[in-house]
Each structure stands twice: as C-alpha cells, then as structure tokens.
Amino acid sequence: MTDPALATIIGQNVAKYRSQAGLTQAQLAEAVDISSVFISRIERGQKMMKVSTLHAIAQALHVSCDALLSPEGPEASRENILCLLSHQSPQTLSRIERVVRFCVEEFQEDSPPSMS
User: Fold this and answer.
1) Is 88 left (phi over 0), alpha (psi -120 to 50) or beta?
2) What DSSP state is assigned to residue 96?
3) 67 contacts 76 by C-beta, under 8 angstroms
4) For the chain, what is the domain count?
5) Domain carrying residue 16
6) Phi, psi of 44, deg, nearest 5
7) pTM to 2 decimals?
8) Rounded to 5, what percent of the chain is helix, strand, coil?
9) Is position 113 within any domain?
C-alpha cells in the first residue's frame, strides 16, 4: 500500500470515529494536544503522523490503532470492542457478556429468529 493510500484510509477512519464519538476536530485536537489544523489535514489524507500521535488519537476515540490503519472490516470491529471493554470493571464485563451472548444467539444467520 502506498503512503498516500494509507493516509487516505487513516484520514477517513479518524473522521468516521471522531464523528461517531460526537467530537469536533477542535475537541479531538485538544484531547491529543495537537492543532485542529493538523487534525483537518489528517482527515483529508494530506498528512501522516507519528506513531505516538496515532496512538493518542486512537485512545481519545476509544478505538484500536488497527481500526485507524485498516479499511473497514470485521477485524477492526473486534479490536474496537476489545478496546472499549479494556477499562471496564469485572461486574460490568459480566453484564456485557450476557448481552453479547444474547445478541449472538439472536443474530446468528444459521438459526431462525426466536419467538420470545
């Protein structure tokens, strides 16, 4: 993959996850301690960044670095879920596990919908 192609993917992902987090470019820039102009250039695919900046942006957006580096796909989603769960208490994780188990059972493609 070329540097411009990677910069475009990273920029699109930063913009997407920033929007999903409900943050403006200025708010993300403040959280990461960089300028909003730099965030804008990243999102437009015009600027690459240091690994430490990539990591800080991922943390601020509560996603994995993989999610920012990769085109949309299931692996990025799995990594994001792990990232979201990493700071939860054991009690919260237990509750989330019950919800995930229910969802997996309900949305399995091989089984008919339950009649609950």
Assistant:
1) beta
2) H
3) yes
4) 1
5) 3-107
6) -85, 0
7) 0.68
8) 70, 0, 30
9) no
Residue 114 resides in a domain: no
- Do residues 14 and 39 touch, judged by C-beta distance below 8 A? yes
d(CA 43, CA 10): 7
- CATH number at 75 reads 1.10.260.40
DSSP assignments along 32-50, one per residue: HTS-HHHHHHHHTT-----
Dist CA 25 CA 23 (whole Å): 7
> Which pLDDT tens digits describe the chain residue by residue (116 residues)?
778 889 999 999 999 999 999 999 999 999 999 999 999 999 999 999 999 999 999 999 998 888 898 887 667 677 778 878 888 899 999 999 999 889 888 888 765 555 54
Question: What pLDDT does residue 115 have?
Answer: 52
Give the CA distances from residue 30 to residues 6, 39, 46, 52, in Å, rounded to whole numbers and listed in that order: 24, 10, 20, 15
